[in-house]
Amino acid sequence: MKSDVVIIGAGMAGLATGALLSKQGRRVIVLEKGNVAGGRAYCYEDRGYTLNYGAHGMYIPESGPLGELMGRLGRPVSKNGYPQATRSYWVHDGRFASLGAKPHQVLTTGLFSIGGRMAVAKVMLAVRGENPARLPPELTWGEWIDSKTNDRSVREFMLAFGTLNSYTNPSGDLSAAFFLSHLQRTLFAKDLVGYMHGGWRTMYEQWIEDIEAGGGAVMTGERVETLEVADGRIAASRTTSARYEADTFVCTLPPQEAPTIAPDSSALQDEMMQWSTPEDVRAYCLDLGLSRPLRTDDATFVFDVQRNLYYSIHSESAPDLAPAGALLLHAMAYLTPEQARDQTLRERRGDELRAGLNQHFPAWKEAAVVTRTMPDAKVLGARRTPENIRNLVPLRATSVDNLYFAGDSRDVPYSLTLACLVSAMQVADAIAVTTTAASVAAVG
């Protein structure tokens, strides 16, 4: 089968790249090893509840990369609901309180002592005023916090705040420059984080429509076994059932998996192995479709600072994720690399997560209509530590001249889903430039 572009992986990066290339007039084939498209963005319905693979809060959905990408496609951004900061509560040192929605409300929160309130306000001001470009590349988020405060409770809170906004546990290992750039880009935006009405399928199904409108297709159940390389170019990708030829190829596989599709002992495999060492980011997740509200107060979000446990009622922001009068609650225990590798440690985290449910959402078991457990959910392909940032996946391969890369492990100054979207736009732009240059050369 011949097409203009073959994309390996039908997750967010693959589908977004395919839609952009289709809009450029290219026929795109997307090969997906699973039985459904969407990857970690995949969502489905169960008894009236719309379940996403993960937490799926989209950072800056209107003002950020998603808005730009959808604008390129001539489509509006799917409707998002935004959590109310005043209904977000934190648990720390036996205290249960909200930080509020405005900077001055930090000075009245019950989460800290009077001295702690002043200290956390100063650190937040430092986050806003820092120049990440001037920070040493080896400086970590934890070290940056230590340079701003010696208050134990504030330090613990800021580390938990880092985990919440990066999914990384422990967050202190993150690159300070990278993470501060992420916070400055998102934290002070009006559309900080949104929950998509109808789930993320309302977004990625539009991309599939664009791919098909351009004469392309998303082929599920097609695991790429190997790439055929000849004369310094990829000639085809071979699955168990077919051979797909194209002029250009895009790989969106996680860096730990990508080397498996390169020819054995090839220069391409050696190149891909360079980016395969970073540990990924994982979490223990519970999705609960609840028949009724379980709290008497207005809390829709609870974060346990010292245990790094997260509880969020997504349907409060996007009501159509649950039937009328019901709730969709997502609970998550962030895993350290050691916990991600050890099943016993993961199960202990699951026990902690359920103990938190018992405390903050009593009677959840009786109210649960739908329960889904994911003890080892993959969140991100590479932790953004100083060491890993130096070894992220580049835009294109050097050992072959027609292979590009997109995904959340790309070398872009963004994280999580934003990295998928930005890398997709970069790949589409690079292919457009390369194709134009080749056409000009041919005419000349």
Structure description:
The radius of gyration is 22 Å and the shape is globular. The chain is built from 13 helices and 19 strands. The protein has three domains: 2-44 and 65-74 and 199-278 and 385-443, FAD/NAD(P)-binding domain, CATH 3.50.50; 83-186, Guanine Nucleotide Dissociation Inhibitor, domain 1, CATH 1.10.405; 281-380, Alpha-Beta Complex (Polyamine Oxidase, Chain A, domain 2), CATH 3.90.660. It starts with a strand and ends with a helix. The longest helix has 28 residues, at 416-443. The strands form four sheets. Strands 1, 2, 10, 11, 12, 13 and 19 form a seven-stranded mixed beta sheet that branches. A seven-stranded mixed beta sheet has the order 8-7-15-16-17-14-18, with helices on both faces. 34% of the residues lie in helices and 24% in strands. 48% of the residues are buried. It is of the alpha/beta class.
At CATH level 3, the topology of the largest domain is: FAD/NAD(P)-binding domain
Number of strands: 19
Major sheet: 7 strands, mixed
- Helix count from the secondary structure assignment: 13
Structural class: alpha/beta
Shape: globular
Gap between N and C termini, in Å? 30 Å
Evaluate the radius of gyration: 22 Å
**What oligomeric arrangement do these chains adopt?**
single chain
Give the strand content: 15-25%
Mean pLDDT over the residues: 94
